[in-house]
Structure formats: structure tokens, C-alpha cells
Amino acid sequence: MHRTKIKVVEGVLDANDTIAAVNRADLDRAGVVAVNLMSAPGAGKTSLLERTVTALPGVRVGVLEGDVQGTADADRVAALHVPVTQLNTDPGFGGECHLDANMVRSALPSLPLEQLDLLIIENVGNLVCPAEFRVGEHLRVMVSAITEGEDKPLKYPLMFRACELVLINKIDLLEHLDFDLDRFLYHLDAVHPGVERMLVSARTGEGLDAWCDWLATRSSHVEAPA
Amino acid sequence: MHRTKIKVVEGVLDANDTIAAVNRADLDRAGVVAVNLMSAPGAGKTSLLERTVTALPGVRVGVLEGDVQGTADADRVAALHVPVTQLNTDPGFGGECHLDANMVRSALPSLPLEQLDLLIIENVGNLVCPAEFRVGEHLRVMVSAITEGEDKPLKYPLMFRACELVLINKIDLLEHLDFDLDRFLYHLDAVHPGVERMLVSARTGEGLDAWCDWLATRSSHVEAPA
Hints:
homodimer; alpha/beta; 8 helices
């Protein structure tokens, strides 16, 4: 006698992860590598982007700008003649402090994905919640400005763990601060041992060649969906 | 003929506001003025506190340190022999990016309120959500470091509107940055016209006398509950 075998499926994915996977599949189909760029307010994400989007020869770049309110950052990027969409978390979502997969879902149709190789998603400036929400990106990069102090990896460990690369920005100010770079790196390795890191200055351009190489290499190696 | 008049009460307060009012009543009963100190990560709240708590003669100060994780800031303040409680939003609350009234409620019994005149509540470093949650405080002060750029009032308007005083910190770095102070002040007045502001440096001590006077004046004028 045979008993019908009943399939049991566990609902292990939450809604955000489900939508992130759908975003990721759309990006993969279009051959676009997406980078989720995160930092505290004022760490220099947009200044880095201004230097980056025009310094990637042969890579077609688009930008998704996440902000609570306003289009200031999108305006700065659009001035460089790059496809850009501003995604505000204020009116439709209640002033969220981070992007989530569903917000990005609503913004993707406004970008010409078929004409892009790389999409940089600039998250809302915040060191807590953005690290908790995947949006469909392939890579996560965080910017930590040395003006914020050496203790930030210890105080916001999830953010420093949730990224493949840490850009240590405003390095041009090192001589004017009491910032102890070795101490910062020690804290960084304590929460995310060996994570790739680069010393950069969006102001002077120091270190940006390595960052642009990193991006260019990865945006030509998009993987097909499994 | 008389009809019984039925009282209709609207449930206009959310739970957070209700608990904030209870916290406030406890603080008032104990004669303690509470200041909710908010900023982005690394703006210098703790460094300001280190300079402040020992510079208020005759004012008995306590500190409530809000952080996602760790006791680094509480350790720094405790070294100054001031009553301090560390309130972590990570284990019990799921890694919240802000303090709310209920978290502060759970921390209040650990502080010797009857022996304090002033309680400084250092919020989690974040320019979005802390502005949305009253915790029972009398005054809200935010710290904006000039290293964060001139555009922050426009990008995080609720935070800049939700405070009685803006401390513009790291002013000692002005000559080393491209920061345009007039432009920052213009943006500040655009979102919160005329809000009180002070230029300070937690590093050099510049401007801290005015800040300490501001605190000392207010902590001797606690009002009884209505």
C-alpha cells in the first residue's frame, strides 16, 4: 500500500528576501551588476560617486539614489549625464531610514537596465538598518569616513560585517585629526577579519584608481542566475 | 427626559507617546531635566559629553547611553565618575536604530534620579528615526559635525526641525574643509527658521562655555507636571 507523499515547504524567506531575489533575477537577466553603497550621513557616498561614474571607461553606469527626501544627490549625479533615479523613502513609505527590496523594486522600471553594466544603489545615510535589508544587489560596499572616529566598527558591527569592501574615506584629513588609523583597522578586523579595505579621498582623488578597478573588474563578470 | 451622556474618548496617543508621558512625569517628580542628544554616527556626542558633565558646577548630571551594542561610550563617561547606564538596543529589542520611550522606561530605575538635576540621554547615532520617537525628554539637542557637509538639514529635515538647539561641532576643522558655513546656516534656517545654534569644538573646547551655560540654566528650571 502506498501513501501519498506530502511535500512540506517551509516558509523560510521573508517578504523582503523574496522581492530581493526577484530584483536580482531581473538584474542578472539584463547583465547588470548592482552595488549597494552604504554609510553614515555625510561620509561622502555622493562625492565618491561623482568621481566614480565618469572614471569607468567602457562600463555603462546607472545610479539609484536613496534619500528620505529631496533630489539633491540625484541632481549632482545627473549633471554627469548618467542615468539616475531618485528614490525617496519619505512620502510613500513613511520616512524610512533605509532602502528595502520593495522600494528598489518600484524604482527598477525607471532605469534603462538593458543599457547598463553597473548599477550603483546609494542607500540612505545610516549605519544600522540598511545592513539588515538586501535589495537584490550583488555586492555591498560601505564608506567609513575617518572623521567619524576609530570606534565605529565596534558600535555598528553588522554594517561592517555585511559588506565585501570598506572604503575608508576622507584620508586627506588624516594629518588634521586625532584619528588613529591602526586602531580603526584593528577594530575593523575584530568585527570582520580580513575584509577588503581601501584608503580613499573623494576630495583629492587618492586611492580612487583602485576603487574604480575593483568596480570595473566586477561589473564585467556578472553571473547568470543559478 | 434625560439621556445619559456618553463620554467619547479618542485614542489619539500611540503607545510610545503614552510611555514617554509616564517617563516625563517620573522625571518631573524627581526634579530632573532630561535632554535627548541626537546626531549622526561620529558627530561627537560622546566627546561633547566628556567635556560637559564635568563642566557644570552645582549641577548633578547623569547619563543614559544608547547604542546598538557595546559599552564603549558608557565606559568613557563612567571614567568621569558620573552615574551612567548603558542601554543597548541590540539584544532585547532586535537591533533598533533609535531609542524609544519603552527602552528608556526600562533603564530609568537603574539611575539615581533623586540625586540628579540633569539627565543626558545620548541616542543611537542616526539622523532619521530618533527624531520620530519622544522618550520623555524636556529638551532635544542635535549635534551636526561640519565634516558631514552643508546639505544635511535638507536631507534630514525632521531631525533638524525636532530640536531646540543645534550644536555645530568640529568647528576647529573649518580651515581644512571645503565646508561653507553660511550655506549650512542657510539650509538650517530653511528647515527650522531661527533655531538656536552654537559653533563648538569638543576637541578644542571652543564654544563649550555657551553650551554649558545653556544646560545649567535649563536644568535649574524644571517645571512641575501640569
